[in-house]
Amino acid sequence: AKELFGKEDPIGKMIRIGRVNLLVKGLMKKRGTCAMGSDMDNRVFVPLTTARKRLSRAQHINMIRVVVDKRHSMKKTAHKIRLLMKKRHRIKSQDIDDFGVVTPSHLMKVSKKVSSVLAKLLLAVAVIALLGGGLVVMMIMLTSVSSRRSEVGLRRAVGASKKDIFWQFVYESSLATFFGGVGGIILGLIGVFLLKQFGHATLALSWLPFALGFGISMILGI
Questions:
Q1: CB 66 within 8 A of CB 79
Q2: CB 46 within 8 A of CB 55
Q3: 47-69 burial by CB neighbour count: b if 16+ within 10 A, else e?
Q4: In angstroms, rounded to a whole number, what is the distance separating the alpha carbons of residues 44 and 213?
Q5: Which of 20, 43, 127, 221 could serve as a FRET partner for 175 with CA atoms 20 to 30 Å apart?
Q6: pLDDT for 85
């Protein structure tokens, strides 16, 4: 409604879908994003017969959404729908269904499985990145020590102990990874800002990933 009519009242106005002119009869309440991630406020509802005859020319219905009363069991209702669909589609008990009945609890199970797989994948990527980062830091510090033998020798000659030399390089590696951690946090915040601006996604910032990333980068340096 905002995109098509701005601040004007859309009710009674005409909109065009494809080649069909439609009269606006009502405006839906704001609902936000649904559990599956689609925008519920970017939809147009039209009469079923109009959609089938004038818009899609479809001879069948792809999906029916059922609202269950709180007094009824969702599981039992889904079972009754499945039996009714089998009867209507003339499907025998031993045959495979040509339809699916999905409940929110089923969607939650699928969502948890997908989240679990993604979490493991992200963990694997993070471990590989940490190993790569650790090797890079190790090689930089090894090169640094090798190329500064004369400096180390001079410091030892004027009275520096092995402990002093050891802590000098620990400070240097910690400083390098400190700035790496700060840079990573800044890049992460920029990424979140860009996603909010251009991705039209609802995002929530959590301090834990930033703290973990920064802490691990420091431990890596040490």
A1: no
A2: yes
A3: eeeebeeeeeeeeeeeeeeeeee
A4: 44
A5: 127
A6: 92
What gap in Å lies between CA 98 and CA 89, rounded to an integer?
Answer: 8
pTM: 0.46
Residues of the chain with pLDDT under 50: none
Q: Which pLDDT does position 158 carry in this prediction?
A: 93
DSSP string computed for the chain: -HHHHTTS--TT-EEEETTEEEE----PPP--B-TTS-BTTS-----HHHIIIIIS--SS-S----PPPTTS-HHHHHHHHHHHHHHHTT--TTSPPSS----HHHHHHHHHHHHHHHHHHHHHHHHHHHHHHHHHHHHHHHHHHHHTHHHHHHHHHTT--HHHHHHHHHHHHHHHHHHHHHHHHHHHHHHHHHHHHHS-------HHHHHHHHHHHHHHH-
Length of the chain: 222
